[in-house]
Specification:
Elements (H helix, E strand, L loop, with lengths): L9 H23 L5 H16 L6 H11 L1 H32 L2 H12 L1 H16 L4 H14 L1 H20 L7 H20 L15
Helix pairs in contact: 1-2, 1-9, 2-3, 2-4, 2-6, 2-9, 4-5, 4-6, 6-7, 6-8, 8-9
Length: 215
C-alpha cells in the first residue's frame, strides 16, 4: 500500500510527468506570444525536456525559466533571423504549391523540387534552438553549427522536420493538442538529437547551463 502513495513511483510519477508535459507546453506557448521570444522559449523547452522530463526529476518549471533567462539574449537575436526566414520559406512553399497543383507540368516539378529543397533550411531551423538549449553559442556560430549538423545527419534532420511539420498541422487543425504537443514533440526530437550531441561532445559543448539547486 505504501508503494501506491510513493510520489516517485506508479500512478503518481505518471501524473507528475503529465503535469510537466502540459504545464511546459502552456508555458512555452505563453512565452512564444511575443513571437521574437520563440527562440529562447524553444531552447528552454528542449533543455528542460532533456534534463527533467526524460529523467522524471522535479523542478522542471524552475529549470525552464532559468534556461529561458540564460538563453534570452542569444535566442532573441537568433529569433529575429529565424522567424522571418521561416515565414519566407513557408510563403514560398505556399505560392509554389498553389501554382504547381493548379497549372501542372513544369510548375508541378518546380513544386516538388522546392518541397525537397526546403529540407535543409527547415532542418537547420529545427536544430537551431535545441543547440542553444544544450550549449552556449554566439549567433553566427549557432547558425553555422545548425547547418553543419543538418547536413551531416540528414536522415535525423528529415525525421525531425516531418515531426515538426505534422505537429504544427495537427495543432492548427485541432486547437486542443497545443496543451501537450509542444513538449511531446520536443521529447521525440530529443531522442534523435541527444545521441548526436553526445557523439560530438565536448566539441559542441562550450558550456552547459547549470540547473537550479533544489531547495
Amino acid at each position: 500500500m505504501g508503494e501506491f502513495f510513493n510520489p516517485e513511483k506508479g500512478i503518481w510519477a505518471w501524473l507528475s510527468t503529465m503535469v510537466d508535459i502540459v504545464g511546459l507546453s502552456v508555458l512555452w506557448i505563453f512565452l512564444c506570444l511575443p513571437v521574437v521570444t520563440i527562440g529562447p522559449a524553444t531552447a528552454a523547452l528542449y533543455y528542460t525536456v532533456v534534463k527533467y522530463v526524460r529523467k522524471r526529476e522535479g523542478g522542471a518549471f524552475g529549470a525552464y525559466l532559468l534556461s529561458f533567462r540564460d538563453n534570452f539574449r542569444t535566442g532573441l537575436k537568433a529569433s529575429l533571423i529565424a522567424v522571418p526566414a521561416a515565414l519566407l520559406l513557408y510563403f514560398g512553399y505556399d505560392v509554389v504549391r498553389w501554382y504547381g497543383t493548379r497549372v501542372g507540368g513544369m510548375a508541378y516539378v518546380l513544386y516538388v523540387a522546392y518541397y525537397f529543397a526546403l529540407i535543409l533550411p527547415a532542418g537547420a531551423l529545427c536544430w537551431l534552438f535545441p543547440l542553444l538549449g544544450r550549449f552556449e553559442y554566439q549567433v553566427r556560430e549557432l547558425f553555422r553549427t545548425a547547418f553543419q549538423l543538418a547536413i551531416a545527419h540528414l536522415p535525423s534532420t528529415v525525421v525531425v522536420v516531418l515531426l515538426a511539420a505534422q505537429t504544427a498541422v495537427f495543432c492548427a487543425e485541432r486547437w486542443w493538442p497545443v496543451v501537450f504537443m509542444p513538449t511531446l514533440a520536443m521529447l521525440l526530437t530529443s531522442l534523435f538529437f541527444e545521441r548526436i550531441f553526445q557523439k560530438y561532445s565536448p566539441e559542441l559543448a562550450r558550456k552547459e547551463p547549470e540547473a537550479p539547486e533544489e531547495e
